[in-house]
Amino acid sequence: MTTKESLIEAFRLYGKAPTDGVTLAELTALLSRRTSQETQLIPANIQTLFADADTGGCGTVPCEQFAAKWARAPLDRALLLQCTFDLVNYDQSGFLDMAEFVALSQGTESIAMQNVFALVDASGESKLLYLSDFVKFNLESGRSLGDADFQMWQSSVWLKLAMTRAPIDRRALLGLTFHWCDVNSDNVLEVHEFLALSKAQDEQTLAMQHSVFTKADTSGDGKLQEDEFVQYNLDTGKALSDFDFAQQCRVWTTLASLRA
């Protein structure tokens, strides 16, 4: 039987940390490759596995949650909550302010969300909701729940709110993302900086990334300006939901933080 540890390692080799979310498409690519010599996991089987783990129908499952579910192993609740917070925290600031928190309900339940914010914000002083507050509140309020109910009510509910939250300012989010990637703060991304973000070594991946850089570099000066980065990602992400668009930005910020 596949162990939880081996699945987490497979995710890591695929570029996914236990705190990351994984989509059905990503899971299909990973498991089809991983199990080709072990079992016959066809896409339909993988879709069933994914649906079983995606209890809230969010379309994104934290790697820790999927690994625990499939391997029938105990859930690392703190790790799951860290992933949930990161997926909800679109700008990757490390905190949610009141406006961001209320936006999760599309403004339709602002008073109720403010009351919840006050409960989660243990100090009540900063007016900012940090990861530690979020994890502590959900661990304590979900203490009596089994793992299945915990992932539903302490994680999936938050992800569903994030998927239907009030519209985000994509241009502003991409501006923040660009500055995350610009680790030397010179206001441009040169091709070697761009390629270094993914730490890819194989020629095929590097060639693909070089092609992306060339398309984004509309001025052709070999340097990616902020407006070029923003416009390219706005165009390529046009068909994505705000939730998926934010997760695409999160990939950039995660890579940049690892490189910094």
Mind sketching the topology for me?
Blueprint: H1 4-13, E1 21-23, H2 24-34, H3 43-53, E2 60-62, H4 63-71, H5 77-88, E3 95-97, H6 98-103, H7 110-120, E4 128-130, H8 131-141, H9 147-163, H10 170-181, E5 188-190, H11 191-196, H12 203-216, E6 223-225, H13 226-236, H14 242-259
Antiparallel strand pairs: 1-2, 3-4, 5-6
Helix pairs in contact: 1-4, 2-3, 3-4, 5-8, 5-9, 10-13, 10-14
Order of helices and strands: HEHHEHHEHHEHHHEHHEHH
* Percent strand: 5-15%
Strand order of the largest sheet: 1-2
Going by CATH, the homologous superfamily of the largest domain would be EF-hand
CATH fold-level name of the largest domain: Recoverin, domain 1
Anisotropy-based shape:
globular
CATH class of the largest domain: Mainly Alpha
Number of β-strand runs:
6
Unreliable runs, pLDDT <50, ≥5 residues?
Answer: none
Distance between the termini: 38 Å
How would you describe this structure in keywords?
61% helix, mainly alpha, two-stranded antiparallel sheet, 260 residues, Recoverin, domain 1, globular, 3 domains, single chain, two-stranded antiparallel ribbon, 6 strands
Question: What would your notes on this structure say?
Answer:
This protein has helices at residues 4-13, 24-34, 43-53, 63-71, 77-88, 98-103, 110-120, 131-141, 147-163, 170-181, 191-196, 203-216, 226-236, 242-259, and strands at 21-23, 60-62, 95-97, 128-130, 188-190, 223-225. By secondary structure, it is mainly alpha-helical. It has 3 domains: 4-71, EF-hand (Recoverin, domain 1), CATH 1.10.238; 77-163, Recoverin, domain 1, CATH 1.10.238; 170-259, Recoverin, domain 1 (Orthogonal Bundle). The strands form 3 sheets. A two-stranded antiparallel sheet has the order 1-2. The protein has a two-stranded antiparallel sheet with strand order 3-4.
